[in-house]
Amino acid sequence: MNENMSINFTPTNYKLQSVKTGKVFNDKGWMLDAPGETDPTLIRAIYEKTQIDVKPDSWGLYKFADWLPIGRTLKGSSAPMTYKSKGLAKELGLENLWITFSGYWPEKGIKMKTCSFKETESYSVCGRMTPEMDKILVVASAGNTSRAFAQVCSDNNIPLLICVPEDNLSALWFDAPLNDCVKLVSSKTGSDYFDAIHLSNIIAGFDGFVAEGGAKNVARRDGMATTMLSATTTIGQIPDYYFQAVGSGTGAVAAWEANLRLIEDGRFGSTKMKLRVAQNLPFTPIYDAWEIDSRSMLVLDNDVARKQVEEMDAKVLSNRKPPYPIAGGLYDALKDSDGEVLRATNQKAREAGILFQETEGIDIHPAAAVATATLIEAAKNGDIEKDAIIMLNITGGGEEKFKAENKLFYLKPEIIFDIEPDEDEVRRQIDKLF
Question: Is omega for the bond preceding 282 within 30 degrees of 0, making it cis?
Answer without folding.
Answer: yes
